[in-house]
Design brief:
197 residues, alpha+beta
């Protein structure tokens, strides 16, 4: 997790991507942000945009809604733990997670119990949550496999191509009975008749 380390773009809510980074989700612009460590600090903004990339979660606040010392937030996907969505009876949906700080990220590593809360005023909490969990699963799988590359594409869908083609080269039902078939049938009928008498 880091504060004010995202390289911001020239227009609001944009950022410069890291190598091999792709943006997978972008929230509506009225998403509020609260980062809290009880007794230590609180960062709050009333509006901004949260992004999910294949490497991290990034929040860029609307410049008019933020204190002067808060420009951006980013956290590697695996450092966001115990994520959950809340759908209150009244009010907008929220997404929360515990955050594990990274060294050199602007938060002392000894700080514990850092809580991140996003409030989706214009919707999108469940879309965000679904995408986050999908990406986190793939990132953790890649980490376990020792791969630096995260594959986010789904496997191709199964397509039913209809009935199987007929077998080639003599398979299937023959046009006429095999040689000697009628003789064997006649003998079995005679044997059955003799056995009844």
């Amino acid at each position: 997790m880091s504060l004010n380390w995202v390289m911001l773009g020239s227009t609001p809510h944009t950022f410069i991507s890291l190598p091999h980074e792709r943006t997978l989700y972008q929230s509506p612009p009225r998403t509020s942000f609260t980062l809290t460590s009880p007794g230590s600090f609180t960062y709050t903004t009333s509006s901004g945009v949260v992004h999910i990339t294949n490497q991290r979660v990034i929040y860029t606040p609307t410049p008019s809604s933020t204190p002067t010392n808060f420009e951006s937030f980013s956290a590697p996907i695996p450092n966001l733990l115990d994520s959950r969505v809340a759908a209150p009876f009244f009010g907008p949906n929220t997404w929360s997670a515990s955050v594990q700080p990274v060294s050199g990220g602007g938060i002392p590593p000894a700080t514990s119990a850092i809580e991140l809360k996003l409030v989706f005023k214009d919707g999108g909490a469940f879309d965000f949550y679904g995408m986050f969990e999908r990406v986190k699963e793939r990132v953790l799988q890649a980490r376990e496999a020792g791969s630096a590359e995260v594959h986010l594409e789904d496997l191709p869908a199964y397509e039913d191509s209809g009935p199987p083609p007929p077998p080639q080269g003599g398979g299937g039902v023959p046009a006429e009975p095999p040689p000697g078939y009628e003789e064997v049938q006649r003998q079995s009928v005679v044997a059955a008749m003799v056995g009844k008498s």
